[in-house]
Amino acid sequence: MLFNSVEYIFLFLPLVFFVYFYLSSRRLAIASKSWLVFASLFFYSWWNIFYLPLILSSILFNFTLANILIKYSLMQKKALFYRKSIFVFSVVVNILFLAYFKYMDFFILNINYIFLTHIDELNIVLPLAISFFTLQQIAYLVDVYNGKVKELNLLSYMLFVVFFPQLIAGPIVHHKEMMPQFNNVHNKILKYKNIALGIFIFSMGLFKKIVIADTFAVWATNGFDNMEILSFFEAWITSLSYSFQLYFDFSGYADMAIGVALLFNIKLPKNFDSPYRSTSIREFWRRWHITLSSFLRDYVYIPLGGNRKSAILTYINLFVTFLIAGLWHGASWMFVIFGSLHGLGLVVNRYFIKFEIKIPKIIGWFITFNFVNIAFIFFRAVTLEDALKVLEGMVGLTTLKLPMFLEPYFSSVSQLHLEFGYYYDLSFQATDVIWFLFAIVLLLGKNLNSVSFSDIGNKKGLLILLLVSFINVAFLFYIDRTFEFLYFQF
C-alpha cells in the first residue's frame, strides 16, 4: 500500500484515524495503541503477508534481548561481562539478519567471479523495509545498553518499530523521542492545528512525489535505461533529472510521513533541510537524510573513534563510515563506489577545515552540487557501463546535440561532433516546463518543517489552503502515472 495510492488516502488512513481517536476518547489507551499496532502490521503486510513473520520475529528477538540487558544492568558488577556479551551478540545477530537477506546473493556472485566457482544464487527476495527497521532496533539496543531505556513494554515497543508512517523508509527514530509522545495524554485528543498542518505537509509531499519526482523519473529512466548513447545535453538532463527525482521522491515521502504522523499528534524528526543549497559535502550530509546521517555519526563514526585520535585515523573513520553507508543502500558495487566517493569528499572537506582553507560560498555550492550529482549517477546506475555512458556524455566524449534552429549557424563547422534535433527520446511534454519551475521554487523556497498554522484565518493561511487545493487537483490529473517510492528498495 503506497502513500500515494487511492486505497491508502481514502480508505486506510481515514479508518485508522477515526477508530484511533474514538478509542482514545473513550480512554481506552491500550486498545488505541493496539489498534495502531494492528493497523501498522496490516499496512506492512499489504505487499506480501509472508513478510509479517519476519518482522515479528525480529521484534520479539530484540525485545527479549533488551529485557535481558536491562535485567543485568540491575545486578552487581560481576554481571558486566555477561551484559556486554549479550549486547554484542544481539547486534551481531541483527547485522547477520540484514546481511543474509540483503547481501547473500551479492556475496555468492562475487565468490563465483573471483574463484570461478558455480555456487547457485539463493534468489532471496528482499523483505520490505528491512534496512530501516533493523537499524532502528540496533540503535534501540545501544540505547538500552547505555542505560537510556529503563523499562520495557511489548506493546509500546512494537508501536515504536512498526508505526506505519515511518515504517517503510524512515525517518529513523529513537525510542526516547517517540514513546513519550504516544504516552502523553494530551496527544490522545484531536488537535485541529495539527490536522491542518498535517494535511498541508502530506499534500505537499504528495505533490512532490506524484507531479515533480515522477516527471523527472521519466527523463532519468529514458536516459539511464533506454538510450545507448547520450549527447552532451542529454547526459546532463539525465543526471540532473535523477538527482531531482531522488530528492523530490524521498523528501516527498518524508513529508507525507511527517504529515500523517501529525494527524495522530506525533512529531517525527525532519529528514531533509534543503540539501541542494549546501556549500560543502559536510553540510550536505547535515541536510540530506538527516536521521541516517545522525545514526552513522552516533553508531558508526563515533564508535570507530571519530576525531578523537590522529588526523589520519579521523580520515579513515570518515571514509569507512560512508563506505558502510553506501553498502547499506544495496548489494551492488555501484553503491560501494557511491559511498567511497562521499567518504573521499568528506575527507577532503575535513582537510580544508583543518588547514582553514576557505572557498567562496558560490564556488563551494557549485562544487558540492556537481559532486553530489555525479555521485548519484553511480547510485542510480545498474552497472558501471551505465554510469560511464552518462559520464562520457557529460564531459563531451560523444556528440553535442543542438536545437534545429541553430543548424544554419554551425553547418560550416564540420570538425565538431554536432547533431541537430529535439530531445524526443527523453519524452518531454509542454506541461513538464511548469513542473520544472515548481521544482525550482520548492528547492529554493522555505522548508516545510518551518511552516506554522499559528493563525489559520489570515491571508497566509488562506493562501496555503488554496495551494493545498491546487495540489490535490494536480494529484487527480496525475494519479495514473505513479511509480513506487525509490527508497522502498533499500
Q: What attributes characterize this protein structure?
A:
67% helix, mainly alpha, 490 residues, 19 helices, globular
Question: What do these coordinates show?
Answer:
The chain contains 19 helices and 2 strands. The chain has 490 residues and is mainly alpha-helical. It has 2 domains: 186 residues, no CATH class; 296 residues, no CATH class. A two-stranded parallel ribbon has the order 1-2. Helix 1 packs antiparallel against helix 2 and helix 14 packs antiparallel against helix 15. It is globular and about 80 Å long. The chain starts with 5 loop residues before the first helix and ends in a 13-residue tail after the last helix. The mean pLDDT is 85.
